[in-house]
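Problem 12. The chain below contains 155 residues. Write out its predicted structure in token notation.
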Amino acid sequence: MHYKYRITKYDPKNRNENGAYLLDDWTAISDIGKVFSGKCLTKKEYENVENNYLFAIESFLTEASIEHLTINSLEQGSEFDFVNGQTVNLKETLEIAKLSLREEIWCKLSINQNMYIHFGYDYYMYIGVSKVCRETLNILPNKGLFVESFKSPYL
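Solution.
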């Protein structure tokens, strides 16, 4: 994998020398209704950010011409029907991503050595792809997302 990124809503200029984010900001769907830096997180604001993350995934997949990913290291409750080793299409990938962002499941998504998507704590997303996706990288800042060169800690 040649191109590895950490994609977040967190501006890197607000990190300390150890990489810790310094501002008071929400990190999970469970924070809806709580106040951060004097502003209450609404469901609408949460969903807007979540949709931007889903847009990022769809954009990377489309630009890299990847139609399917495989579920690995799945952790989920009995209410979901996903299984380890299952191949998922774009629609299913976005559903899994939404559930992961909402901390309802956890898994790794990948396709051979061509791409991976991992979700970390505190609304961190890691994407690795074998093809440079310039169009996606140029669009994401307009969606309020920050892209940093960064290897997933879940590899």
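Discussion. Helices lie at 43-63, 90-101, 134-139. Students who got a different answer should revisit the alignment rule from Section 12.3.
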